[in-house]
Specification:
Elements (H helix, E strand, L loop, with lengths): L1 H9 L1 H14 L7 H31 L4 H8 L4 H13 L8 H10 L4 H13 L2 H11 L1 H24 L8 H5 L12 H36 L2 H8 L6 H9 L6 H13 L4 H13 L2 H7 L5 H24 L1 H4 L1
Helix pairs in contact: 2-3, 3-8, 3-11, 5-7, 5-9, 7-9, 7-15, 8-9, 8-14, 9-17, 11-14, 13-15, 14-15, 15-17
């Protein structure tokens, strides 16, 4: 039974099925660039949707126990490295996007959550989430997916610890400390309510990310079929010492999310780009995106934003080189 389940989620059956579809139904040889690209697009789309549905449902069910109000209460009870670890772990199962950064930040500050813990949450939450984990699992396998989650949490913990040690509370806009949001009642859900919440969350997330996903898979398909592997391997391969640094610097000003960039990263890695280079680019676009920085400027001053970008950016670069260094153990 275990062997059957393992084979099912390795998706070899889907690979063969799509291959037959491309060759027998579309009449396009798999040895051509067009056939290879079409196979990549259809295969990755179906594979990702299957795992996306499973992971979002599972994590959403767990998430139903941790609404923002409860998360805020939990974090207000911790301090020190234990608090940073807890903040990063809660960031994994708590919904987060750039548009929610300001109210979450205000809510944490108002609840008395230390600044370092708040930033551990803000760093980890966009990098590590159930949707990103599902696509990583589908694209790269469980080893890379698990190590990605672990390193994302470590970046959040270390980044929060450093920011907390810099005593930058005065770099938060004064009005934030004056806001009194008050207590919000936490509804207790039944098992049926939690299942309904998880199903609704699957529908909501898929509806919000399908365009990013389709564009990402489409770009990945083009790269898979037409990008010159020797050139990519030469300039963005794991042996280029500057590739990770460039990947992070290029990723920061872009507006995207992990879901749209993972299929692109998969195609690049298949063409010889270093695993760490591709994943650090992906982390930079999610944790340090320009839209999020613009929104955070409403509640924190430039000095704290600069510290946040530098500390998180260095952490992501270190993770990139780490992935490139241990890539042979993960594939």
């Amino acid at each position: 039974m275990l062997k059957w389940i393992n084979g099912l989620f390795q998706f070899k059956w889907l690979d063969k099925l799509v291959e037959k579809l491309v060759e027998n139904v579309f009449g396009i040889s798999m040895t051509t660039r067009l056939g290879s690209s079409i196979h990549f697009f259809i295969y990755d789309t179906i594979k990702i949707i299957i795992l996306l549905g499973i992971m979002i449902f599972t994590i959403s069910y767990i998430r139903s126990y941790f609404p923002p109000e409860r998360t805020k209460k939990i974090l207000s009870k911790f301090s020190g490295i234990t608090g940073n670890i807890m903040a990063s772990l809660l960031g994994i199962v708590t919904p987060f996007c750039s548009c929610s950064s300001v109210p979450i930040f205000i809510g944490f500050v108002e609840a008395g959550v230390p600044l370092g813990l708040t930033f551990s949450f803000l760093i980890t939450s966009p990098i590590v989430n159930e949707a990103a984990f599902a696509i990583l699992l589908a694209s790269f396998g469980w080893k890379i997916a698990v190590v990605y989650v672990i390193t994302g949490v470590v970046v959040g913990v270390v980044g929060g610890l450093i920011i907390g040690s810099l005593n930058l509370e005065k770099e938060v806009e004064e009005y934030v400390y004056q806001i009194q949001m008050g207590e919000v009642a936490i509804d207790e859900l039944s098992s049926r309510d939690r299942v309904r919440f998880a199903i609704d969350n699957v529908k909501d997330i898929v509806k919000r990310i399908w365009l990013f996903l389709a564009i990402g898979i489409g770009i990945g398909a083009v790269i898979h079929g037409w990008a010159p592997a020797p050139i990519l391997a030469k300039y963005a391969g794991p042996n280029n010492p500057f590739a990770v640094l460039v990947g992070v610097l290029v990723g920061i000003p872009l507006y995207s999310n992990a879901l749209g960039t993972i299929p692109i990263a998969e195609a690049l890695i298949n063409k010889g780009v270093g695993i760490g280079t591709a994943l650090s680019f992906m982390m930079a676009t999610t944790a340090l995106s320009l839209p999020e920085m613009i929104l955070l400027r409403k509640v924190i001053k430039p000095k704290l934003i600069t510290a946040f970008v530098i500390i998180t950016g260095i952490g992501i670069i270190v993770v990139g080189y780490l992935f490139n260094g241990i890539a042979h153990l993960l594939v």
